[in-house]
Each structure stands twice: as structure tokens, then as C-alpha cells.
Amino acid sequence: MKLLLYISDAIIPILLFIILFHALLGKGRVYEDFLEGAKDGFHTVIGIMPTLIGLMCAVGVLRASGFLTDLAVWLGKIIPEDVFPSVLLPAAIVKMFSSSAATGLVLDIFKEYGPDSSNGLIVSLMGSCTETIFYTMSVYFMSVGIRKTRWTLAGALVATLAGLIASVILGRML
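Request: output the structure for the sequence above.
Response:
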């Protein structure tokens, strides 16, 4: 086990040195290429910044207005509690937009129910089994200029639903 811990601590620096060594052997312009890549990355960040700000503002407004709580109450009437706990619905919805906002909701659930409770286990698994769909799509598609997303959203929503179902099943088994 100590060997695995040592390897996991050393793997990133080792990979960086291997890449650097390989670039130096190839007589590449290592520093200049690094600066060009950093410059391109900066331009990408500037390009997607309005989308990110819009997403963060929308999530903040939804959370502060109480809309997510109202939506959870409404969906809780449709979805039986034994199928999916209604208290976890806001975290499931927000996770599709922002992982950091969902983490705040997860911490609220931990404070109220405890991390070892059924709700705590389910919401923990939910965070691992789902993706920030809209954030990821906006960042990656906007950065490369993709306009037609085809089946990406539908596939991502199906995968999120599968992750939510798996979270509830596994969380209740633990």
C-alpha cells in the first residue's frame, strides 16, 4: 500500500519530467511552445467567459429565489419518496449546471441529515455519478465553435438519469 501511495504522489512530476525530457531530446522550442499554449488557453478562457458568467448567475438566481426549493416540492409530489428523496432534487438539478453550486447544496444536506445518512450517501454518489452537462457543453462546444450539438444533450440527460438511479440504488444498499 505504501508503494501505491508513493507512486500516486510521484506520477504527475514524473510524467512532467518525461514530457520535458522528450521535448529537449527532440530539440523542440519547449519554453516558446509553452508560452504559445498558455496564450491560446488565455484566449479560450476569454472566449468562454460570458457563457460561464451567465451560467453562474442563472444558478445563483435560481437558488436565491427559492425556485429550486419550489421545484423540489412540486416534483416531490410527482415522484414518490421511496423512488427518489425530494430533498435531493435541488442538488440533482443544480449539478447539471454547476458542480460548485451543487457542492453547496450537498453540504447543506450533510448538515441537516449527516454524511452517513441515507440521503448523505445518495447525494455523495450522485455527485460522482453525474456530470455538469450544461457547463461542460457550453465550455467545450463554445471553445471549439461547435453550434450543432446533435444528440449530445439527450445522451447526457439519459446518462445523468442512469447515474441518479444508480446513486439511489447503491445509496440504499449501503
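Helices lie at 2-25, 30-65, 67-78, 89-95, 99-113, 118-129, 133-144, 152-173.
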